[in-house]
Amino acid sequence: MSSTTPSAIGVEFDDPQLEASVRAGLATIEQSLARSVRSDDEFVSEAAGYLVDAGGKRFRPLVSTLAAHFGDPTRPEIVAAAVVVELTHLATLYHDDVMDEAPVRRGAESANARWDNTVAILTGDFLFSRASNLLADLGPWAVRLQAQTFERLVIGQIHETVGPQAGADPIEHYLGVLADKTGSLIATAAEFGAHFAGVDSPTIAALRSVAQLVGMAFQLSDDILDIASESVESGKTPGTDLREGVATLPVLYALRGSDADSERLRELVGHPLVDDDEHAEALGLLRKSAALQEARETLRGYAREADLALRVLPDVPARRAFQALTAQVVERTG
């Protein structure tokens, strides 16, 4: 692969040594992740490995691995910490699918659809327990950071579930939910990688800020792809959020309008769109709306903030890889 060809892990590398090192690190993390979900109980192993085997972008391990390249990326704690973060992420997916009653995850039946809600919830709990077991070997600092991150994940989920308070801006509320539910764990992925690589405190703080912003941008790009894409680039069928009645950023911007299309959208998205014709109509209205462009501009705003935060970091190949990753997050939405 040439250094200018986008890699399967979503980054354009301009340094072959960095690329080789990152790929090796991610391969080791993947192997450790597969081991971490195995159990002596065959059914538990099958359920716990279900989403691992389904694949995924492994965005959080990638962030951990890149952050570690500001220090010594060979330290074994980096792998364990990256697995902790990915296990946490996967556990939340099992729980999210139950809450959302989602039938599909990563192109296959969700765990709750394949088995039932109880199995999915308990499997998520099992993954949390495996993450905790790994954390115990990483020391009190890591346990505390994970606890603080988990608190933010739960608060974000609570805020999403109850919705904005009376008088609150729905868009600000939504972005706050994303910061807690998505940005916090990606920020922790960077902090874990950098900390265990022996990176200095100011650089760790900067990397955490970068990762939080890139994480927000990554989720917003998924929101946009769910509306704009004709394919399954985001890992789910286009319009899935609409069909499930989830008001993502493009929808919230559209609902803020006062034209006839906005009024019609309010009628359509006030409930899950199980009717195929209504779903297609809503998707069509959103695709031609100014709201989609407004959401893209919000995405670019987070990417610009991330780029500014990157400029204070040491000028090493890993910084350029983060810059490429940020650009790729924006470019994937077209």
TrEMBL record:
Q: Which UniProt keywords apply?
A: Magnesium, Metal-binding, Transferase
Q: Does the keyword Metal-binding apply?
A: yes
Question: A single Pfam family, by name?
Answer: polyprenyl_synt
UniProt entry tagged with the keyword Transferase = yes
Q: Which PROSITE patterns match?
A: POLYPRENYL_SYNTHASE_2
Q: Which cofactors, if any, are listed as required?
A: Mg(2+)
Q: Which residues cross the membrane?
A: none
Superkingdom of source: Bacteria
Identify its protein family: Belongs to the FPP/GGPP synthase family.
Name this protein carries in UniProt? Polyprenyl synthetase family protein
Q: Which organism is it from?
A: Jatrophihabitans cynanchi
